[in-house]
Every structure is written in structure tokens, then in C-alpha cells.
């Protein structure tokens, strides 16, 4: 291989594995967020705002875990700072290396991946159990 050729550090199957893992985390934790919203007594728009806050929190937490264990030497803080563009390389948020579509893809997937059904079911169930049948 000559010096002219560059090896693509992004590996498609790894992106798919990261996306699948994030979808599993969202699907397993969305009922927990629904239980919280139902017990607290959120109704209407506030319940959907809770869902959006939960989606963002899970995505950010998962991103920090994935970037934090990535290769490249240094400690977790060094890798996160580098991914945020504060280190060498200035890669933006660094999500393009780990997820299809980068940050935008993560945001769209957060809302459209189907975890909202588990959230809605447990939200309405626990709202009904706690607040309607008192």
C-alpha cells in the first residue's frame, strides 16, 4: 500500500452494531421513562416533552460511553474532548465515526425507532393506576 492510499477508519458493520445496541438500550429503558411519567402524573404535551428529554439523555449517555471507550490513547476525558473538537483533529461531535448519520441520524432515530410505543403504553398504564383509580 502506498502512502497515497488512506485506510477508511469507519467500518460499516461496527456502525450497524452501535446502532443496534443503541436501539436496544432505548427499547429497554423507554418503559422505565413511561412509568416515571405516569407516576408523576404528566399529561398531554408534558409527557411527550418527557419522552424527548429521555431520548436525548439516552443518546448523549450512550455517545459518551462509546466515545469514552474508543481507541486513540489517553484517558476517557481526552477522547471525549477530542471528539468534541477540543483535542487534536477537530472532528466535531465524533458521532460520524460511531453511528450512521452522525448526530443528526441519532436524533432522528431517537424519535422514530419505535421505542415510543413502550413509553406510551407504560405511561398511560401507570397514569391510570396511580391517578385515575384513587
Give a quick set of tags describing it.
mainly alpha
Q: What do you see in this structure?
A:
By secondary structure, the protein is mainly alpha-helical. It contains five helices and no strands. It has helices spanning 12-40, 45-68, 76-83, 102-112, 115-132. Helix 1 (12-40) packs antiparallel against helix 2 (45-68). It is elongated. Residues 86-91 have low confidence and may be disordered.
Provide a quick synopsis of the model:
The protein is mainly alpha-helical. The protein is built from 5 helices and no strands.
Itemize the secondary structure elements and their pairings:
Blueprint: H1 12-40, H2 45-68, H3 76-83, H4 102-112, H5 115-132
Helix pairs in contact: 1-2, 1-5, 2-4
Q: Classify the secondary structure makeup into a structural class.
A: mainly alpha
Mean pLDDT: 74
Q: Catalogue the unreliable spans.
A: 86-91
Order of helices and strands: HHHHH
Helix content: 55-70%
State the end-to-end distance.
73 Å
Major sheet: none
Write down how many β-strands occur, each being a DSSP E stretch of 2 or more residues: 0
Overall shape: it is: elongated
- Count of DSSP helices? 5
How large a portion of the residues is in β-strands, by DSSP E? under 5%
Cα-atom radius of gyration:
19 Å
Amino acid at each position: 500500500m502506498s502512502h497515497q492510499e488512506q485506510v477508511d477508519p469507519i467500518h460499516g458493520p461496527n456502525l450497524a452494531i452501535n446502532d443496534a445496541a443503541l436501539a436496544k438500550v432505548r427499547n429497554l429503558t423507554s418503559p422505565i421513562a413511561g412509568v416515571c411519567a405516569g407516576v408523576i402524573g404528566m399529561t398531554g404535551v408534558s409527557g411527550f416533552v418527557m419522552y424527548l428529554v429521555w431520548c436525548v439523555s439516552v443518546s448523549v449517555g450512550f455517545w459518551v460511553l462509546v466515545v469514552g471507550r474508543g481507541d486513540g490513547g489517553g484517558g476517557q476525558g481526552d477522547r471525549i474532548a477530542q471528539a468534541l473538537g477540543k483535542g487534536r483533529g477537530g472532528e466535531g461531535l465524533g458521532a460520524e465515526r460511531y453511528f450512521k448519520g452522525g448526530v443528526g441520524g441519532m436524533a432522528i432515530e431517537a424519535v422514530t425507532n419505535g421505542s415510543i410505543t413502550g413509553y406510551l403504553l407504560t405511561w398511560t398504564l401507570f397514569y391510570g393506576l396511580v391517578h385515575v383509580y384513587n
